[in-house]
């Protein structure tokens, strides 16, 4: 798979990740890595897990979530 953002700029780069929101292939230059807290139902409340998980997104989805 190739990086979608690179292809729109007439370049070819190997994708190393896929956006967790839209599924676009991403190279290291275009992937955004952010922590994501994982919640799990536990009894009458929520429990969080440590450490945080990774959330990989493209630039468009990253900006849309801010």
Mean of all residue-level pLDDT scores = 92
Cα shape: elongated
Number of strand segments: 6
Strand ordering within the main sheet: 1-2
Cα-to-Cα separation, first versus last residue: 27 Å
Biggest beta sheet summary: 2 strands, antiparallel
| SSE pattern | HEEEEEEH
Determine Rg (CA atoms, Å): 15 Å
Q: Helical amount among residues, as a percent range?
A: 10-25%
Total helix count? 2
The total tally of domains equals 1
What is the structural class? alpha+beta
What does this structure look like?
It comes from Streptomyces abyssalis. This is DUF2180 domain-containing protein. It holds the Pfam family DUF2180. The chain is α+β, with helices and mostly antiparallel strands and 66 residues long. It has one domain (4-65). It has helices at 4-7, 59-65, and strands at 17-18, 25-26, 32-36, 39-42, 45-48, 53-57. The strands form three sheets. It has a two-stranded antiparallel ribbon with strand order 1-2. It has a two-stranded antiparallel sheet with strand order 3-6. Strands 4-5 form a two-stranded antiparallel sheet. The two termini are 27 Å apart. The relative contact order is 0.25. The model has no long low-confidence stretch (mean pLDDT 92).
């Amino acid at each position: 798979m190739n990086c979608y953002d690179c292809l729109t700029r007439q370049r070819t780069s190997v994708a190393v990740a896929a956006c967790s929101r839209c599924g676009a292939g991403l190279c290291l230059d275009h992937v955004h890595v952010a922590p994501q807290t994982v919640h799990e139902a536990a009894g009458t409340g929520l429990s969080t897990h440590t450490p945080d998980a990774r959330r990989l997104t493209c630039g468009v989805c990253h900006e849309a979530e801010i």
